[in-house]
Specification:
Length: 404
């Protein structure tokens, strides 16, 4: 921690405003989150012309109150994906969400995990571990989420690599990367053409893409834009979740041994990792009317950067919030949001991470990081631990039924 950061935590306002692009902030945003959450939980940033919201209760209110909306005609996400349920409200939002909901309901997500996600994860792990790859975590995170989403949508397995490449400019643009709008428009156009070709009697006939097309209440643009959004939402954050989870357990040999002995701990380890190192740090809302939040008057139309990650480490809710503790029994973290825009795929994402961890435990007896202590997550909005090389000792006989 730098001297300036330490000084800011002694009670003085940080010298600089929040700066997502600053290298120090990207390496370690938590001291800034801590300071603002304690001293200015609702902060007007001159740099961004937006209000930042840091504390759990304030974040929860913004996510659930009708005084705040996800809609704005010029959102960055709209330029990337087109109008989607991400930035719609009212009847149209409800209609889009209802049309896409079936595969993500709890019972359906559990069955899909057993029938589709587990075999996919197991096959990829067997392949990567057979090659004795130290970078198997990054490789799995790169391949598995898009393969899962392709199955959800009813798209061919063989297209996952192409779709992943086409999605990359859109995700980078939403994450304020250096990609140009021209590149985004070109990639989005190719994606839309691909999806239109898959409607409805093509390769998507048995999946969500076809179900959206047959809904009867959605336009073709609704179907295609929703599909593009789901391709993004089901991959970027889940990939980050996989790397954050497996890197964490590799850095905690005692926890890994306990998990091997007691698989009932797996859901708690996944939930705590999502709280402690959420893949998505910030989401955007707008004031739908003049409103007061945390004693700060916010005018109608003002943008709010809602810092979910800061809420997840609010000491008023989570004692010793910076400690990764799988035995926590505190309130549900806000990793997936809350309210009418809560992440539609949160149940499937949790399933996917649990299945991955079970698959690793089935195959690996000892796991550890080879590059020293656990690295901090990197990124701006989407954050993941990068380049986590691992050493491991395989089990003599896999519980999944094959030798390793």
């Amino acid at each position: 921690m730098s001297t300036s950061t330490k000084d800011s935590l002694r009670g003085n306002r940080p010298v600089d405003d929040i700066d997502f692009a600053a290298a120090e902030f990207q390496r370690d945003p938590w001291p800034s989150y801590d300071w603002y959450r304690e001293h200015e939980p609702v902060h007007l940033s001159q740099r961004y012309g937006a209000y930042f919201v840091f504390g759990y209760e304030h974040v929860r209110r913004v996510m659930t109150s009708p005084g705040f909306t996800a809609f704005h005609p010029f959102r960055v996400s709209r330029r990337a994906f087109g109008p989607t349920m991400l930035d719609q409200e009212g009847e149209h939002h409800a209609r889009l969400r209802s049309a896409a909901a079936a595969p993500f309901r709890p019972r359906a997500a559990t069955e899909f995990g057993r029938r589709v996600v587990a075999p996919l994860a197991e096959g990829m792990l067997d392949d990567l571990l057979r090659q004795r790859r130290g970078d198997f975590v990054a490789r799995l995170a790169e391949r598995l989420p898009m393969a899962v989403v392709c199955h959800v949508m009813g798209l061919p397995d063989g297209d996952s690599g192409r779709l992943r490449d086409l999605m990359r400019p859109l995700v980078e643009y939403v994450d304020h990367g250096t990609v140009s709008l021209e590149e985004v428009v070109a990639a989005r156009g190719e994606l839309r053409d691909y999806l239109r070709d898959a409607l409805p009697a093509g390769p998507g006939a048995d999946g969500l893409l076809n179900a959206l097309a047959e809904n009867g209440t959605l336009s073709e643009a609704d179907v295609v834009n929703t599909s593009v959004l789901l391709l993004a939402a089901g991959t970027e954050t889940t990939a980050a979740g996989i790397t954050n989870l497996l890197s964490r357990v590799a850095a905690e040999p005692e926890v890994f041994r306990r998990l091997s002995d007691d698989r009932s701990l797996v859901p708690a380890v996944v939930t705590e990792t999502l709280r402690h190192e959420p893949p998505l740090h910030v989401t955007l809302r707008f004031a739908s009317r003049d409103v007061t939040l945390g004693g700060v008057d916010i005018p109608e139309g003002a943008p709010l950067q809602v810092v979910l990650a800061s809420a997840n480490r609010d000491p008023a809710v989570y004692p010793s919030p910076h400690v990764w503790d799988p035995e926590r029994t505190a309130r549900t973290p806000l990793t997936f949001g809350m309210g009418r825009h809560v992440c539609l795929g949160m149940g499937l994402a949790q399933q996917e991470l649990e299945i991955v961890l079970h698959g690793v435990l089935d195959r690996i007896e000892e796991l550890e990081l080879t590059g020293g202590p656990l690295a901090t997550a990197q990124g701006r909005t989407f954050r993941a631990v990068r380049d986590s090389e691992c050493a491991y000792r395989l089990r003599a006989v896999s519980d999944a039924g094959g030798t390793t």
